[in-house]
Amino acid sequence: MSNASMVERAERIMLGNYRPAPIAFVQGEGCQLIDVEGRRYLDLCGGIAVVSVGHGHPQLAKAIGEQAARLMHVSNLFHNVQAIELAETLAQRTGFARFFFCNSGAEANEALLKLARRFHYGKGEQGRTELIAATSSFHGRTMGALALTGQSKYQEGLGPMVPGIHHVPFNDLQAMASAINPRTAAVLLEPVQGEGGVVVPSKAYLQGVRELCTQHGALLFFDEVQTGFGRTGRFLGREHSQVWPDACSLAKGIASGFPLGAIAVSEALVDALPPGSHATTFGGNPLACAAGLAVAKIMEEENLVARAEERGQWLAGALAEIVEASPHVAEARGMGLLQGLVLKGSVQPAEVLGQVREQGVLLSLAGGNVLRFTPPLCVTQAELAQGIAAVRAVLVGR
Ligand SMILES: *Cc1c(COP(=O)(O)O)cnc(C)c1O
């Protein structure tokens, strides 16, 4: 087997909706990935902010293996021990009151969209059906989540979009104040925009939106799919601003690569989705929730949230030095282990990404021109330094 042969086979059999790098990985250990030809890479992409506890974690693999042998699926016609335990764990960790499990970030946002409309309907406010999201946001690819996503490139040729959704510029409180109205069911924001280019809003903005929502009787939702599970150096991104949204969506890091998503809701919303109003066949089955439980335990034992903060600070410092040293970098920004280098028009972002990859380091692009770092939370300082050296070799003094 070679990378080239896998590329050839993929091009014959896979739909063309992705543009993957010409590498096929077969094994992972911590922050290392090994391809079919045995070449090692340093993974500072982490499967796009998913692989929170690192590749091949023995404790996670064991938990999945044992649960797979015991019981994988029961359906939502019965109670589910692992889902109950995971919800209890997350309630304790986040302070949210109730949980619903699904399979992905997009599905979690679909659930929030339905929850928003159904909540107001249940209170007799049938005119409150509209949602406000931000431009340059990303909320997923299913039709509801896509309509919420504030980037037209993702919607091209896919219309008509789900109606009743409006977009306003991110981090612009005045724009939100002008848009919110008595038909607004909910506002959905990312505490830090990930796919949009690692855009960090001010705390005052998030706090101001919270006040506007409360004043106007609209719900506030945070999409914590990328920012959750320690990514920003706090368990949830919301903790930086101390804003309490009425609910949030979770996925990506929640089970470190096992498909799992969730919504977490506050006490006021516990009755918002009555029996029959929403469901999923696979969502939160015992296997996925056992993976989630193992990840929560590992994060606690290995102190990964604090480590993300500490390593993130080191990484942010190293990126700031690159801004000083490279004529091709405009800015460094981010929180914890969600960091970005904003490239100038003098370089092709895809080319830079490829050159860094040739040095054996994996990153991703966000917002078209932002080199994004989302390593596993267990990344060591030496590994980050190796990644920085590769980025410097490409961007400094070329
Ligand atoms: C990745 C992402 C999603 C979509 O998650 P999927 O699991 O791909 O459906 C939604 N919101 C944010 C903020 C994301 O980063």
Walkthrough of the structure:
The protein is of the alpha/beta class. 39% of the residues lie in helices and 17% in strands. It is built from 13 helices and 15 strands. It has helices at residues 3-13, 46-49, 58-70, 81-94, 105-122, 143-148, 152-155, 173-179, 203-216, 286-301, 304-325, 349-358, 381-395; strands at residues 25-29, 32-35, 40-43, 98-102, 130-134, 165-168, 184-189, 219-223, 247-250, 261-265, 329-335, 338-343, 361-362, 364-366, 370-373. The strands form three sheets. Strands 4-10-9-8-7-5-6 form a seven-stranded mixed β-sheet, sandwiched between helices. The chain has a four-stranded mixed β-sheet with strand order 1-2-3-13. A four-stranded antiparallel β-sheet has the order 11-12-15-14, with helices on one face. A hairpin with a 2-residue loop joins β11 and β12 (338-343). α11 (304-325) runs parallel beside α13 (381-395). The radius of gyration is 21 Å and the shape is globular. The mean pLDDT is 98. The structure holds pyridoxal-5'-phosphate.
Helical content stands at: 25-40%
Mean pLDDT: 98
* Low-confidence blocks of residues: none
Shape: globular
| First-residue to last-residue Cα separation | 35 Å
Report the bound ligands by name, code or SMILES: pyridoxal-5'-phosphate
The assigned structural class equals alpha/beta
Calculate Rg over CA atoms.
21 Å
Q: Approximately how much beta-strand content do the residues carry?
A: 15-25%
Q: What about the largest sheet?
A: 7 strands, mixed
Q: What is the overall number of helices?
A: 13
Number of strands: 15
Instruction: State the strand order across the main sheet.
Output: 4-10-9-8-7-5-6
Following the backbone from N to C, one meets helices and strands in this order, namely HEEEHHHEHEHHEHEHEEEHHEEHEEEH
